[in-house]
Specification:
Elements (H helix, E strand, L loop, with lengths): L7 H5 L2 H10 L2 E3 L6 E3 L2 H9 L4 E2 L3 H6 L18 H12 L2 H6 L1 H13 L6 E3 H6 L1 H11 L6 H16 L4 H27 L5 H7 L1 E2 L2 E2 L2 H32 L1 H9 L4 H12 L7 E3 L3 E3 L2 E3 L4 E4 L1 H4 L34 H18 L3 E3 L19 E4 L1
The protein binds protoporphyrin IX containing FE.
Amino acid sequence: MEYNPMLPEVKENPYPYYTYLREHAPAYQIEGLGFWALSRYDDVDFALKNPSLFSSATFLANMLGDLNPVPEAPSLVSCDPPDHTRLRKLVNKAFTPRIIRSLEPRIREVAQGLIDQLAGKSEFDLVHDLSSPLPVIVIAEMLGVKSEDRADFKRWSDDIILATNRMFTVGDEKRIRESIAEFRTYFQAVIAARRTDPREDLTTALVQAEEEEQKLNEWEVLSLLTLLLVAGNETTTNLIGNMMLALLDHPEQMEKLRADPSLIPNAIEETLRFDGPVQGLVRQLTQDVEIAETTLPANTLVFPLVASANRDERKFSESERFNITRDTEGHLAFGYGIHYCLGAQLARLEAKIAFEELFGQFPALAGTDEPVTRMESLIVRGPKSLPLVAY
Ligand code: HEM
């Protein structure tokens, strides 16, 4: 069985391929890409726990090529200690659980506003109308983007994400470069303005963050702002989309959830385990490492498949079953260790609010006969659009 994340049939449903890999080829070299896919829970976990063996330094270069929006500074997700330790400490000061919790009323207001626009409609598109705009508006406000600039911000964000997906045409590339240039100019101005005129936003918090008399320089702040866009928008959109798809495919679970919305947080964790937005990560070996009885030489590029680890029967019993009341402890959908997702609490909160508000507004929702098309990405998985019929 040939596994390659570029193949349309794999994109459509990668899970039978992961089952095959876990059983027959737990360290598997992907033809054409050269990466070695790791598919078993213990091996993926080992890779994420050992950044000194599995470096993140080339992650972004592998995804973005020369389209890196901020080549002047290392990106948090694409660097190793000690750079990573220093950056993460500073970012943690700006992105605290308290700040995230304080956003709840505003996130709800944004979600309600989007859902209010659907009033009276018998059909709408979950992705277009709710799950895509919600995280973009939230992060735009957090970063201090003026509401009149939001459409530009969305365009830059979409283009930069397209670049990370490595699935664009020559025409796209020209536009992506223009968007990157506009994005840089806009946020360089915002960063400069926040230094002299601080506000209640994340950009100000990043500019001011200080640890042992060290601060982030302008490029590091810009690099972090870019990462927040890239890492947080499409992933959260896909979490909401994948959860809706899983619930539509499992009507008994949908019924259970509607009967007891206090299960929403666990249903979110189960979605992350069962069909997470991030399928795999990228690492590069710093020395020879034996993994799954294969010795991989230094510099090998590794693709730890977190979505496969999350379906590993050795870790989760009845792993192929979507069960919103199961114990999901230990899933790797947000990664693990030093690079553990900075925005995990924000993503969970946005998804929870989206489902609470949807269920509150629509007593019943159903899918349509239209086949689901998936986003074009090597790493991210979710529906491009998701038409729903409302009752
Ligand atoms: C359901 C939604 C999300 C998923 C599934 C997800 C998944 C992940 C994963 C797997 C990693 C680890 C990367 C690695 O080890 O190489 C990561 C890191 C990261 N995520 Fe998320 N993410 C989500 C939402 C968000 C949001 C909303 C934000 C911020 C607005 C965010 C910001 C980040 C950042 C900054 C990192 C890098 C952390 C570091 O390298 O120290 N993510 N995310």
